[in-house]
Amino acid sequence: MTHADERRATDAGYPPQQGEFDLIRRMRERWGPLAADIGDDASVLRVPRGEQMVVSTDTALELVHFRRDWLSLREIGYRAVTAALSDLAAMAAAPQGVLIALELSPEARDGLMELADGIGDAVRAVGTVVLGGNLSRATVLGITTTAVGAAFAPLKRSGARPGDLVYVTGQLGGPSAALKALDVGHPLAAPLRDRLARPVARVAEARWLATRGAVAAIDISDGLASDAAHLAAASDVALEVAVERVPVFQGAGEPDALAGGEEYELLIVARGALPEAEFVERFSLPLTPIGRVVDAATGGGGHHGVSFTRAGKRVAAPVGYDHFSR
To answer: CATH number for the domain including 224?
Structure first.
């Protein structure tokens, strides 16, 4: 770092030897082979022949999407990147890399290497790399992740048709229950806290299901009720969900499972029955049929194209998760 670099760094609000380029160098060294190609003005990607590029962007902002007193910086970095990778999973795309834009508060800058470790954890979990990004100062911590993937036939929200079956991966409600407990200062059991702090982008699961009959999908980031409605609207159909079939995470309640956000499990639609037992054996994760797709004109008289039933009788729809409501 030259004297001119030090002056520019100090003018930008960073102390000497801790300027933007030095911080980037330290993160690159921390990531090692996970960021081997960082260094040019832009990144070059080679998409496998015959496949389509799939791109998604997600932002995690302090006091909106997370609180520093609830999660470590490593967990915050991991969750932020996993959220973007989950969008690739929803489309059965293989990750090709991520771009990370960090807005660093002074406190977050002091813990930057811990944040970098969490980002590294997330990309390593799905076998991808950091392609590059940007670094700037801010009053609160913000992480914007652009995830780039590729798929031969991406799953879309618009693929559902009347008569299809509706499935969900995993168990729902854990993050919602954890947030409620943290809000009132209650201690969290380890599995519940881990469900909030260490979600999993279901990349391998989605790609496996796409080869076995899945025709539409969405990740459950806004809650089952809201995301089912998004899928129904995109496909111009209605969904009927049997609430007693929705798998509930231990320590959570049915309202958490039906409406809680930040799950990152998958809502999957298939023309016929999916191989549930084989899925469980391969991924050690439940795959549960929870409903069906019906014609929008004759069914789905519930909330935004989704109706909920219990023992065959319609029940009130839960209120979906909204990032702006917290």
So the answer is: 3.90.650.10
